[in-house]
Design a protein that fits this description.
The chain is of the alpha+beta class and 471 residues long. The chain contains 14 helices and 17 strands. The longest helix is centred in the C-terminal third of the chain and has 23 residues. It is globular. The two termini are 14 Å apart.
Length: 471
């Protein structure tokens, strides 16, 4: 089979498919062969439907041959996060309570990729109910980092990131409350976008007004992320926060220079986040690319007062709403960190939530004011390097101990609370070959800006082209 096809950008593959230089069936077969060879060691894809994928690919080839309209993702293999419902395909949420659950219908993020012509091959591994930024569960075990077997692929979209890095699929999707698209992208040297809340509508969902958790695309290049986002974005009348603008404009050609761009660099988010010096060293060595591209870079950070309170309280409130009853009914079958977070939510008063929402509102205003002076904020995506899969979560970074299991994710959770779009793009490698992610943040709704900046940086540095050595 053609391994070269499995490492090309999705944008190139889409063009080859449209020109009929490669068929959807050939592309799917190449990826299925690679999955068969490489996935057992990685444990990135936990449910596979090879026959269904081949049948869908044949149908896609027939539509193109008949001159019927095709979507922007025509013929591209895709894997779906195992917390996202797939009609007729097992969806476990990484929990033994759902080991045999087969939903009747696709949820919206899955349906939109299918409607755009993507070919579903399977489901990617997650931590239980997507809680935490390290991908392991009692059903399927841990997902391994393609760059170093035995280390974490991050999470909660860790299976998706590992599958992309290993060339098992060209595009994937995930969700992000506290970094679940950005963190694994950084650990696996791929690209993950947390869009502005409402850019990619989530349906069905428990609390449709919440802006804390979002869904979005992952891929190996920023251009591929933009292509997938163009299919995922756009309004849905059932989703109260969905943004009206369609996704089509997001796939327009991206620039390769950044003349006049105003960049703020916040290596520890204004002293709020301890970061492993090895992470900071890699990113500071890469910052020169921005001045070379015509940007001005200054050390600065928005006032993030209230971000911890807003995120912590509203996350706990959502966990109680989503999992509280489940925890009470099956306490022995839900992992401790979920029980802890739901219990915190159950203890909240109306006044607690009100204060958090007030802090959330002030934070938004502080961030909007900051982005009147800067176009983008740069920061580390993660505070630590990939760690052993046996470790449930890191307890310290840069010599600072964390208070709870969310502490090591604050480089992402503080940004989640702002409502800003945030992109993790490959930012370089440590001397011993571990990937480091650069987080690019822009003003609310400026999703196109993070894509443009991330793309120009990616093209200048080419860090994303350094693929793992897999056999």
């Amino acid at each position: 089979m053609d391994d070269d096809l499995c490492t090309r950008p999705a944008t190139e593959l889409a063009a080859l498919l449209r020109a009929r230089e490669v068929s959807a069936r050939e592309l799917v077969d190449a990826h299925l062969d690679r999955i068969e060879r490489l996935n057992p060691a990685l444990n990135a894809i936990v449910t596979l439907d090879a026959d269904g994928a081949r049948a869908a690919a044949d149908a896609a080839d027939a539509r193109l041959a008949a001159g019927e309209p095709i979507g922007p993702l025509h013929g591209l293999p895709v894997a779906h996060k195992d917390t996202h419902a797939t009609g007729g395909m097992r969806t476990t949420w990484g929990s033994p309570l759902h080991a045999d659950t087969v939903p009747e219908q696709d949820e919206l993020v899955v349906a939109r990729l299918r409607a755009a012509g993507a070919i579903r091959v399977g489901k990617t591994n997650v931590p239980e109910f997507a809680a935490g930024s390290h991908t392991f569960n009692t059903l399927f075990g841990a997902t391994h980092n393609p760059y170093r077997h035995g280390l974490s692929a991050g999470g909660s979209s860790g299976g998706a990131a590992a599958a992309l890095a290993a060339g098992l699929v060209p595009i994937a999707e995930g969700s992000d409350m506290g970094g679940s698209l950005r963190n694994p992208a950084a650990f696996c040297n791929v690209v993950g976008l947390r869009p502005t809340p409402g850019r990619v509508p989530s349906h069905p969902t428990t609390i449709g007004w919440s802006q804390l958790s979002v869904q979005g695309p992952m891929a190996r290049t920023v251009g591929d992320v933009a292509l997938a986002l163009s299919a995922l974005a756009g309004p849905d009348p059932r989703v109260p926060i969905s943004l009206e603008s369609p996704g089509t404009s997001l796939a327009a050609p991206l620039p390769t220079e950044l003349t006049g761009l105003r960049v703020a660099w916040a290596p520890d988010l204004g002293g709020r986040v301890p970061v492993d010096p090895a992470v900071t060293a890699v990113l500071e060595a890469s910052l020169g690319a921005f001045t070379d591209l015509g940007a001005t870079v200054e050390a600065d950070c928005p006032d993030l007062t209230g971000a911890d309170e807003a995120f912590g309280v509203l996350r706990a409130w959502l966990f109680e709403a989503s999992y509280g009853d489940l925890v009470r009914r099956h306490p022995d079958q839900v992992k401790e960190t979920i029980r802890w977070n739901a219990a915190r939510g159950a203890e909240l008063t109306g006044a607690d939530v009100g204060r958090a929402e007030a802090a959330h509102t002030r934070l938004y205003e502080q961030v909007v004011a900051f982005f009147e002076r800067y176009d983008v904020l740069l920061a580390p995506t993660t505070q630590v390097l990939p760690f052993p899969v046996e470790v449930e979560y890191p307890t310290s970074a840069g010599g600072v101990e964390f208070d709870d299991y969310l502490g090591w994710m604050r480089s992402c959770t503080l940004v989640s609370a702002t409502g800003c779009p945030a992109l993790s793009v490959p930012g370089g490698f440590t001397p011993d070959g571990l990937p480091v992610g650069l987080q690019v943040v822009a003003a609310p709704r400026a999703d196109r800006t993070v894509l443009e900046v991330g793309h120009a940086f990616e093209q200048a540095t080419r860090f994303g082209e350094r693929r793992p050595e897999l056999h």
